[in-house]
Design goal:
By secondary structure, this protein is α/β, with parallel strands linked by helices. About 35% of the residues lie in helices and about 25% in strands. The protein has three domains: about 110 residues, Immunoglobulins (Immunoglobulin-like, Sandwich); about 30 residues, no CATH class; about 200 residues, Rossmann fold, CATH 3.40.50. It contains twelve helices and 20 strands. The strands form five sheets. Strands 2, 4, 6, 8, 9 and 10 form a six-stranded mixed sheet that branches. Strands 17-16-13-18-19-20 form a six-stranded mixed sheet, with helices on both faces. It has a four-stranded antiparallel sheet with strand order 1-3-7-5, with no helix packed on it. It starts with a helix and ends with a helix. Pfam families: DUF58. This is DUF58 domain-containing protein. InterPro entries: DUF58.
Length: about 425
């Protein structure tokens, strides 16, 4: 029942002084209003006569807006006056995308499409929760309502990572072309493959001159080299408790995902194969880059619902999985946190086995708060304690970095917005040196 019967009774109460028996007037007016309400509810279109379905986007990138529409078909012989509410989980950021929402009028036998705009605030799967349909009678005195399952058409929107670091890809590809030698003379490095001979030009390294070929041609010829292709790159995402920390406004796991996606896109264009593992105390995601054209979309889709777990990462499991999966030498990019407790007790004991077979790169997000606390002068006693804690945290990171370097591990420690391009730059440098 709506507010209209009460309003009608209130208006009728103004006529009670005209009645010879006011109590009789109250009974008559109450009976009339109740009869009108019952008739109005009976004339309302039954919600079961309205068929509902969905159409629209299945995936959207975090920060972008997608549209998912509800299609309503009035199969009854009467026009439908209804209130429609399409409810999603709060993190889906749903809002109506049609004027006059949420009231609609659908003629008998007609169909209508009601769009809902979704701007998610988190990665992962965002399901539709409940479709509520409230059908009103012609007078608006009463209504019929249906809500929840199984009347709600199922729909799930997968929210993909932002991948804002793809704006760096053209610049990294330009550097890759320089390394490959398509723009500038190819470089010479350990582990590279011989390509062709060409005439010497000013600026070429004299160590690349092929004297025998020059004697045969009566001209100075130099050897050109290109980095080896079909190398293997393994990205390992640490999804343990350290990945749940927010560094600035970005979760540490999201920054690691950005770095992994940019590296996968770059390595795929370079002709290398990229595999992905997400591990804490179990393997959460495993993507094998069998096809370079499909590896990146598969990674994006697999990483979308990935969330950190509040457990310690089992680095023994990480090393075992890598050694079991990768028989050939490859570049292992471990995206984790430079914490003395996590790495000192977990990674360092198994690192010699891993570094003996593979080239290891450890990439971590640097917390700018530590740098700020360690550089500004303390004004209060509390600030002095915070500054001392920041200095100790930075000293622990330095000790972990030195220990990793001692095992031949390359370390990248960068802010969240610079982690992805710096990891890609390190990959290009190692590729140019033939150390993959």
């Amino acid at each position: 029942m709506t507010w209209r019967p009460a309003a009608l009774l209130g208006a009728g109460a103004l006529t009670l002084p005209l009645w010879s028996a006011p109590w009789l007037g109250v009974l008559v007016m109450t009976g009339v209003v109740l009869a009108l309400t019952v008739v109005d509810r009976a004339l309302a279109v039954p919600p079961s006569a309205v068929a509902a379905s969905r159409q629209g986007a299945r995936t959207v990138r975090l920060g972008e807006t997608a549209t998912v529409s509800v299609r309503l078909h009035n199969t009854s012989s009467r026009p439908l006056h209804a209130l429609v509410r399409d409810a999603w989980v709060p993190s889906a950021g749903a809002r109506p995308g049609f004027p006059g929402a949420p009231r609609v009028r659908i003629p008998a036998g007609a169909r209508v499409v009601l769009p809902t705009l979704l701007t998610p605030t988190r990665r992962g799967d965002r399901p539709a929760v409940r479709l509520t349909l409230r059908s009103y009678g012609p007078l608006g005195f009463a209504f019929r309502q249906r809500s929840g399952q199984p009347d709600t058409p199922p729909w799930t929107l997968r929210v993909l990572p932002r991948f804002e670091s793809r704006r760096h890809l053209p610049e990294k590809l330009a550097r890759l072309r320089v390394i490959d030698g398509t723009q500038v003379a190819r470089g010479r490095g350990q582990g590279t493959e011989f390509d062709t001979l060409r005439e010497y030009v000013v600026g070429d390294d004299v160590r690349s001159v092929d004297w025998r070929a020059s004697a045969r041609r009566a001209d100075v010829l130099v050897r050109t080299w290109r980095p080896e292709r079909d190398r293997r790159v393994v990205c390992v995402l640490d999804t343990g408790r350290t990945a749940a920390v927010r560094v600035g406004d970005v979760p540490r796991l999201d920054a690691a995902i950005e770095a992994a996606l940019l590296l996968a896109a770059l390595a795929g264009r370079a002709g290398d194969r990229v595999d992905l593992l997400a591990v804490d105390n179990a393997v959460r995601v495993a993507v094998t880059g069998a096809s370079q054209s499909s590896a990146l979309p598969r990674m994006v889709n697999a990483l979308a619902p990935l969330q950190p777990n509040l457990v310690e990462t089992d680095f023994e499991l990480v090393a075992g999985e890598i050694l079991r999966r990768e028989r050939r030498r490859c570049l292992v990019v471990l995206l984790t946190a430079l914490e003395a407790g996590a790495l000192g007790e977990g990674l360092l004991p198994v690192l010699p086995r891993l570094a003996a077979r593979h080239q290891v790169l450890v990439a971590a997000v640097h917390d700018p708060v530590l740098t700020e606390l360690s550089t500004r002068p303390p004004d209060r006693v509390q600030d002095a304690y915070a500054t001392a804690a920041a200095w100790r945290a930075l000293a622990d990171r330095d000790r972990v970095r030195v220990a990793l370097h001692r095992h031949g591990v390359t370390v990248v420690d960068a802010p969240a917005d610079r982690l992805a391009p710096m990891v890609s730059d390190t990959y290009l440098r190692l590729k140019a040196l033939g150390r993959l």
